Amino acid sequence: MKFAAIVFSLGIAICSNTYSDEHEVGQKNKAFSQKTLKVKVGDVVHFTNQDPFFHNVYSMSETTAFDLGSYAKGSSKSVKFEKQGEVVVQCAIHPFMKMKIKVEK
């Protein structure tokens, strides 16, 4: 009887597991590699600096606000998107760098 309870418990854990995807957005030539990106709730976006100078990726969007701080070439920082909505992403060092991330269910 104990074995059946353990198997049943494991079945619930496996069935309720959600999968998330990972996405890559580069910064090169003072621009994001994508103007728009669609992701799902729970997905992670890696922002990789491919320029020979610093970038500081941030968002003040209500859906997901973050500030990754300044980071050098070859560095990558990540954000997990946990709410549905639109997120405007910018670079604090290069204000003309902008992109939108649409987070869907």
UniProtKB/TrEMBL annotation:
InterPro entries in UniProt: BlueCu_1 (IPR000923), Cupredoxin (IPR008972), ET_Amicyanin (IPR052721)
Domain Blue (type 1) copper: 25-104
Species whose genome carries this gene: Pseudoteredinibacter isoporae
UniProt key word Metal-binding: yes
GO molecular function, one term: electron transfer activity
Name under which the protein is recorded: Plastocyanin
Pfam families: Copper-bind
Keywords (A to Z) from UniProt: Copper, Metal-binding
Domain of life: Bacteria
